[in-house]
Design goal:
CATH superfamily: Vaccinia Virus protein VP39
Number of domains: 1
Shape: globular
Order of helices and strands: HHEHEHEEHEHEE
Number of helices: 6
Distance between the termini: 42 Å
Structural class: alpha/beta
CATH topology: Rossmann fold
Oligomer: single chain
Number of strands: 7
CATH architecture: 3-Layer(aba) Sandwich
Radius of gyration: 16 Å
Low-confidence stretches: none
Strand content: 25-35%
């Protein structure tokens, strides 16, 4: 069974409840100015829905079709316009089908591969923001979540030299299971 099949089955097994976004992630998203926003690895859309409700023009990307279908249904229920795109972010040129630039790019609860990181600045307008907030090793310690999908402390600070690191929060210091990076395009 492929990775996409596993995730699609997870979404098929979920309740029909609209996904909620933890308060910690809502606080991070509030740092982004309203604009055209790309939500990568969006799942069934908790962040996309939150952003659209705040006035963002959202393009939501995931490789799990069932997650995207759920997101489309939730957006319709709330009368929100969210564009969805099925893209496997582990592909070498994953963002190539997106021919536009964004004011914000959001990656939440997903550890981006180096090949994806290298594509991000090409999709950012001048002064655009990139928010990456994902699980750190504390999440692994607390839950047994595979450590290979968790950020090590300060792992991304030097990973994007073409962007300016505006803020880094090592959530481990506060007992949080998330590390947060906020970059700005130069």
């Amino acid at each position: 069974m492929s990775r996409a099949d596993l995730w699609n089955n997870r979404y098929l097994d979920k309740s029909s409840a609209i996904p909620s976004l933890p308060q910690e992630l809502q606080a991070s998203l509030a740092l982004l100015p309203v604009g055209r926003t790309l939500d990568l690895a969006c799942g069934d859309g908790a962040a996309s829905l939150y952003l659209a409700e705040k006035g963002h023009q959202v393009v939501a990307v995931d490789f799990a079709v069932e997650g995207l279908l759920r997101l489309q249904g939730f957006a319709a229920e709330r009368h929100l316009d969210i564009e969805t795109r099925e893209i496997d972010l582990s592909a070498t040129e994953a963002l190539e089908p997106l021919d536009d630039e964004f004011d914000n790019i959001v990656i939440l609860r997903y550890l981006p591969e180096p090949s994806l990181l290298q594509q991000l600045s090409e999709r950012m307008k001048p002064a655009a923001r990139l928010l990456i907030q994902t699980f750190n090793v504390e999440h692994h310690r607390q839950t047994g979540f595979p450590e290979r999908f968790c950020l090590q402390a300060d792992a991304l600070s030097q990973a994007l030299p073409e962007l300016s690191l505006q803020a880094y929060d090592n959530g481990q210091l506060q007992g949080s299971v998330f590390d947060r990076y906020l970059f700005v395009a130069k």
